[in-house]
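It is worth pausing here to work through a concrete case rather than discussing structure prediction in the abstract. The textbook approach is simple: state the sequence, then state the predicted structure, then interpret. We follow exactly that order.
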Amino acid sequence: MQTRVYVADRHDVVHRSQRSKRLASLAREALIAEAELTPKPGLVDRRGSGAHHDLSLALMMRSANAIEPYFGAMASCSQGQIIDCNLRSQLAAIGRQAEHAMYRATQGSNSHKGAIWTLGLLVSAAIRAPGEDAREIVAVAGAIARLPDRAQPKLFTHGDIVRNRYGAGGARMEASTDFPHVIHCGLPMLRDRRARKYPEEVCRLDALLSLMAELDDTCVLYRGGVEALSVVKEGAQAALDAGGYSSANGRERLRELDRELIARHVSPGGSADLLAATIFLDALEEERNGVA
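Step two, the predicted structure:
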């Protein structure tokens, strides 16, 4: 009896390649949208470098462009593979290549290391679940994140220092628990503000504030400890309670928080990464629903 061998149709191969490139493009666009959003407390934006001394908007843009192809490679790698440790290790290897590309583009500055992890998982999940909503995509991303990367020797990172000192889970915990802050804070706030017909800038700034008010941001903890984290959370919540960025009082609270974070040299980078994830997942759902 002759065994039939399945050969992928050329059009199917082309479609898969186009989908991987599209997801990579959406990830890059989300990173650029996050970087350009202004004003963000303590973060790089159109006004300047925020609390950073080694980053600028131009560097953030250059970094986003440099790592875009690696998001496409992660999506292509994930499509059709079983979710197991082998896939996890392959994706991690591509992620490390993306980090090298980032450092080359920025002359050694860490612009998007956390975002490579976060958006890399999301593009790898989205390619496996075309047409699915955000909750289904983050569930797949979480399943991948929970697997160990057996090919990489254990390195002691800033995240490990913060986790050992403060017990905060950081980006790895966020991913392995299916991105709860994106699902329960970022996306609901973005859509609530959009439903009220606010400008997109307001929607995204309030989404960022909602993330900052709830996240145990390891970037903040590493730089400023528990006191700085309290300043971030309380300041972001105060801005929201004052009406968010659409109100004069909310804008003033945001400006006060920005000044405080710059003085402390503290930047909520973890919240910024999750805002990019929020923007990415929102764009996927709008694309699925045929929203221009």
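Step three, interpretation. The chain has a mean pLDDT of 91. The CA atoms of residues 134 and 234 lie 28 Å apart.
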